[in-house]
Amino acid sequence: MKKKLLLCTMLISVFAFAQQKSGAKQFWENLQKQCGKSFEGQVTEGADNDTFRNKKLVMHVRNCGETTIRIPFFVADDKSRTWVLTYKNERIQLKHDHRHEDGSEDKVTQYGGTTTNSGSSTLQFFPADQQTYDTIPNAAANVWWITLDETSFTYNLRRIGSERLFTVKFDLTKTLPTPAAPWGWKD
Fold first, then answer.
1. What is the pTM assigned to this prediction?
2. Where are the domains of the chain?
């Protein structure tokens, strides 16, 4: 009887563990909760001459699907950048979609990387992929990461082996009016 009870307890534990969501899935679902919302950010790490400083920085979680989330990132009137996150097989891919005002792709676009593990509900790392190396050879040592909690979203870049570090932090407690579409998009 004790063996059967122990076996049943073990099976329930295994089943409960199998039903838990991965860190990537939890992160994805938490980010989807922000869909349609816009937030202002500020540079918290980066060079003093960084072109992003002293400009209005806005992210808009504009397009959320089951496997793709698109987040335009505006730097003042520059609407050329969109972070594209794709969820597949318990991993998340980050790509940077850069456009010109006419909507055409910039020659430096679609770089980024894919998580190597499921990460956590609040943190995902994206080491540079082969496409990044092919597009921007100096960026082969790039690692991007995004943090997400109830009050903030941070986008981060570190170039391993260098002093290059960039972080922009967005306040999720204060929404902004919905901005116009980024370059290359239609409202």
1. 0.88
2. 22-176
